[in-house]
Amino acid sequence: MEWMAWTWPTAIFFVVIASLLITFTILAIKFPETPRVGILQIETTRGDRLFITLLGSAFINLAWLGLTDITQWAALGLCLIYAVAVFRWV
Amino acid sequence: MNKTVNHKAWFLVLPVLILVAFSAVIPLMTVVNYSVQDTFGNNQFFWAGLEWFEELLNSDRMWGALGRQLAFSAIILAIQIPLGVFIALNMPKGGFWASFCLVVMSLPLLIPWNVVGTIWQIFGRVDIGLLGHTLDWMGVSYNYTQNPVAAWITVIVMDVWHWTSLVALLAYAGLQSIPQAYYQAAKIDQASRFSVFWYIELPKMSGVLMIAILLRFMDSFMIYTEPFVVTGGGPGSTTTFLSIDLVKMALGQFDLGQAAAYSLMYFLVILLISWVFYTVMTNLDKRDGV
Q1: N or C, which terminus of chain B has less Cβ within 10 Å?
Q2: Which residues contact A85 (CB under 8 A, 6 or more apart)?
Q3: pLDDT tens by residue, chain B, 290 residues
Q4: What's the Cα-to-Cα distance from B5 to each of A30, A31, B2, B13, B17, rounded to whole Å?
Q5: Contact B57 A59 (CB under 8 A)
Q6: Which of B121, B223, B123, B100 lies closest to B163, judged by CA?
Q7: Where would you find the membrane-spanning parts of this chain (chain B) (predicted)?
């Protein structure tokens, strides 16, 4: 794998995403759910909410990177709050 | 009848999964991997962290290309959607002329993008092109290689020429699926032509128009070939859209790391817009279904 120049941080990033996907797949099989309508007025399942969380987190991180000089870990904290909010209300 | 539960069938999906992983997922992962590194060729990579993202977010280059790209997509949508609907409304409803119109309308869609670019590149030239020469003869100053306004007009007219047919064909299909009873009811009510359009045709076409808008938006947002052949992104960088800029960065300057960061942000914007469109479309369907 040397020739593809993989690095540990990217590996960790993808392991986190992959394990999230696997966890949510197992959850969906073990505990089937009915979609619900949240504040966005759209029907969402857990998978949809995960997608909204991940996509939103990407934009939060980019905005943080472009607008502030504060450490990026703070953006990650903000993403966690955002994730909780999405799973609670969307 | 009870279906047999047999999860072994999932193994049949495995070849597709491997193929997609090999051709799409892993290359995308490679882009993420490159975006946090720098290379000077020779397959030697150096850790750069989030530097590329930060640099791009604070430079005018990407924002400029994004702004031009959004302006381009907005302009062509604003022209092509109403024009396509207008053409569809005025097309014959049946018989020989309907088929004739459909064939003629489909022709531009069959031409390869590179060829469309070349056609317009020559068509607009002042020395040998019909359009350029005629405009010059009429005393209109038109030179798409030097004048940004002329370049924009050329690129937009070219896209309208190439893709309005798609909108018209989709709208036509939508119109054809409206049952005659609606028109008869409108006639009994003595509805005006505009009311028929506004209360019957437009709502009945809305689903198919959403698809047309989505298709045209995505295609125009990723446009590369046609403007590249005609203007090469110029004059200056006035018609450099996101894809053109990205190729310049990745293949022209060979800034793999920066280009990877650029393409990831490009991808995120497309992902966001597609998701919004998709959500709106499926929710409209559900509302219609109830």
Answers
A1: N
A2: none
A3: 577 777 788 888 999 999 998 999 999 998 998 888 888 777 788 888 888 888 888 888 889 999 999 999 999 999 999 999 999 999 888 889 999 999 999 999 999 999 999 999 999 888 888 998 999 899 888 888 888 898 999 999 999 999 999 999 999 999 988 888 999 998 899 888 888 888 888 888 888 898 899 889 988 999 998 899 988 887 888 888 999 999 988 888 888 888 999 999 999 999 998 898 888 888 777 766 54
A4: 16, 18, 9, 16, 22
A5: no
A6: B223
A7: 12-36, 70-89, 96-123, 149-175, 196-218, 259-278
Across the interface, do A65 and B286 touch by the CB < 8 Å criterion?
Answer: no
Q: Measured between CB atoms, does A21 come within 8 Å of chain B?
A: no
- For residue B263, with 0-12 CB atoms within 10 Å meaning exposed, 13-18 middle and 19 or more buried, which class applies? buried
Separation CA A34–CA A46 (nearest Å): 9
d(CA B55, CA B149): 30
Report residue B221 as tokens.
Answer: 């947002």
Q: Give the ipTM.
A: 0.89
For residues A68 and B12, give the distance between their C-alpha atoms in angstroms, rounded to a whole number. 49
Q: Rounded distance, CA A48 to CA A52, Å? A: 6
**How many whole angstroms separate alpha carbon B178 and alpha carbon B168?**
16
SS3 label, residue B190: coil
* Rounded CA separation B219/B213 (Å): 10
Nearest one of B76, B282, B80, B284 to B171, comparing CA atoms: B80
- Using only C-alpha atoms, chain B has a radius of gyration, in whole angstroms, of 24
CB proximity A10 to B under 8 Å: yes
Q: What is the DSSP letter of B265?
A: H
Contact B57 A42 (CB under 8 A): no
Say whether B268 and A7 touch across the interface (CB within 8 A): no
